[in-house]
Amino acid sequence: MTSTQSHDRLVPDSASPADAASRPPDPPAAGPRRGAAVLAVVMAVSVAAPAGTAWTLAGRAERGRETVRDAEAARAVAQTGARDILSYDHRTLEADVGRAGRLMTPGFRRKYEALMRGVTAPQARRDGAVVQSEAVASGVESAVPGRVVVLLYIDQWTVKRDDRAPRIDQQRARLTLVERGSRWLVDDITTPGPPG
Fold it and tell me: What is the pLDDT of residues 46-55, one digit of tens each?
């Protein structure tokens, strides 16, 4: 059986030209160009996946370092700010409230001022009270970007008009601070009571 070459295919002599035209074309051979393209895609994926993971881990590590820096900055503000926020003198209450308010968010400042003016001030004036507070220890309870909760251990000295000596109390205060621009401001204070 002899064959003739027609359209890069071998066609037997006995086949008619119509038979050759009706057969489906042969699939293209997998040449070196197709193999190189597949290899390039596989290599790109195998390089990109670890690089993407490394990029993600580096981003998380940087956010972790930022959170630690934020927590330390907020803790320092809470520790020094506690003196102004938790101290007052019956003779200078308005100035004391104003000084403390500058360390707070506007919403918390309104609550603090209402409490100080409505409850604390009348009692402090009646008793001639002077309260001095100092944070003696502090720790960060939780920290997420833009929000830090700090627990303070506070020594508080109270002197009233009829007292012979100051009363010293140990208190705890939990301050929630939020970042506003480049400042950390107190957004809430709770007092869990004396350490037990």
Answer: 666 665 555 5
